[in-house]
Amino acid sequence: MLTMDKVHDIRFRFYVKGENISQIAESLKLDWRTVQKYVDKKDFNEPVPKPASEQRFCPKLDPYKLTIDKWLEEDKQSPRKQRHTAKRIFDRLKEECPEFDCSYRIVATYFATKRKEVFSNTKRGFLPLEHHPGEAQVDFGTADFYENGTRLTGKYLEVSFPYSNKGYLQLFYGENMECLLEGLDAIFRHIGVVPRELWFDNTKTIVTKVVKGGGRETTERFDRFREHYLFQPVFMNPGEGHEKGNVENKVGYHRRNFLVPIPRFLSLSDFNRQLLNECEEDANRDHYRHNETIEGLFKEDLKHCYPLPEIEFDLSGRGTATTNNWGKFYLNKNMHEYSSSPKYANAVINLRLTSSFVIVMDENYREIVRHRRLYSDTKQQSMDWIPYLRQLSIRPRALKYSGIYDMMPPTMKQFLEGCSNMETGKVLKILAELTVRTGFDSALNTVNQALCYGASDADSLKNLYRRLYADVPELPPMPLSPGIPDVGQMTANLIDYDVFLRKGVL
Question: What are phi and psi of 151, to 5 degrees?
Fold first, then answer.
């Protein structure tokens, strides 16, 4: 087709300048039929586009398009890495259709367009959802943070109210049932009410099965939590995250505004309280659509929520675990290893789980050991030495014959090998006491210092620990007058004093 400028030139030459068809064709180097066409043309309206059904795409491939379309539809049921490529479709057509004579380029062109149509939702339209006061949406986001100088990657629970666009978040070490329930409970108690409806993804934390027909089978703990707080859960269609777009937008908004730069704090619980206060301050801004603040609209949300239940819900999880020969057990598909006590080797123990701790309970549900809960998909272990050291201090002769001795750090083994049989029990008891006070690392550091001084008794451990961790100042050398010679520091052999004292007693 010619441009409108060229068409105007043709018609101007013919109707205004009086040139004939041949002159115009020769001057503009056009076919005379083309010139005649535009001279006689009466309708210059823009042509209506042909319907997609009338547009032929790769017409030479028409006899094989139904076959290609069928293969691509069947690919929906196949794993992503076992679906047809353009090359595989081209090869199959050559093998299965003897009369096939199209080039690979035509097949690849059609495949690229048709595959996008089959596997993409880009041609689908979305209806705007109407949100009522008292509805809330729930989701998790990922964020890094520093706690006590240690960088961790955690999850934060986001709860947003689409009607008012107000949202709250709580940060956790990971994402599990305890994190979900603790986060929801903290937000409910902060606002003083419970949303009448909560929208969720089909997360495995809650949903155990998507039932044919649209139903959901949920975990018993979630069912108990839901009944306790009386809210109605609403689950999204699988793969349709846009249905709760408000909370997904809020996940990004709060990450950019509250978690950048990477937050640093000493206590996660204190930081979570700070986050709730920051959410309240953020709600004083104008709503993106209505001529009112977010906080003003949120008051209407609160009117349509339920009151908090009178009885508090136990947010911790309960469970059991079977220990091995060393009294250790595994959680999270055997990825994370925890210790209990040598007393409970090869036994079934009771557990209490929170978002932050794994607590080992005895048969009467009294606490034995408390571990910091481990997260991540890599193998980790948490060892609490206190029960083991206490048990061995009662029977010190069993030390080298127990599996616990092999788990001890090399320097601790070295120190214990230098102790007499009488001292071993006392040393183990003191190590247990020091571990209770300031942790196993401080006890181990005290042992390392004792080795440097050549000490191998319980009293030396006590004295070194006081110097290292009890803020006992080390006095500087006493200044001497010029006339007094410096004879250097003399080492005392306490064994000689022990021999002398025994003789005195006898």
Answer: -85, 130
Instruction: Report how far residue 448's alpha carbon sits from residue 444's, in angstroms, rounded to the nearest whole number.
Output: 6
Report the C-alpha gap between 74 and 88 in whole angstroms: 14
Cβ atoms < 10 Å from Cβ of 240: 12
Question: Tens of pLDDT along 83-141?
Answer: 889 999 999 999 999 899 999 999 999 999 888 888 875 445 554 566 789 999 999 99
In 290-425, at which residue ranges do the beta strands (DSSP E only) sit?
306-307, 317-322, 328-331, 336-339, 348-353, 357-361, 367-372, 380-382
Parallel, antiparallel, or unpaired for β 197-200 and 232-235?
A: parallel
Which range (270-279, 386-395, 400-409, 450-459) has the least confidence?
A: 400-409
Greater model confidence, 192 or 51: 192
Helices assigned H by DSSP within 200-311: 220-229, 245-258, 268-282, 294-303
Least Cα distance to 38 among 60, 72, 71, 10 occurs for 10
- Name the pairing type of β-strands 135-147 and 197-200: parallel
Q: Round to whole Å and give the CA distance between 436 and 385.
A: 9
- Find the helix or strand (DSSP H, E) in which 194 lies: strand 193-194
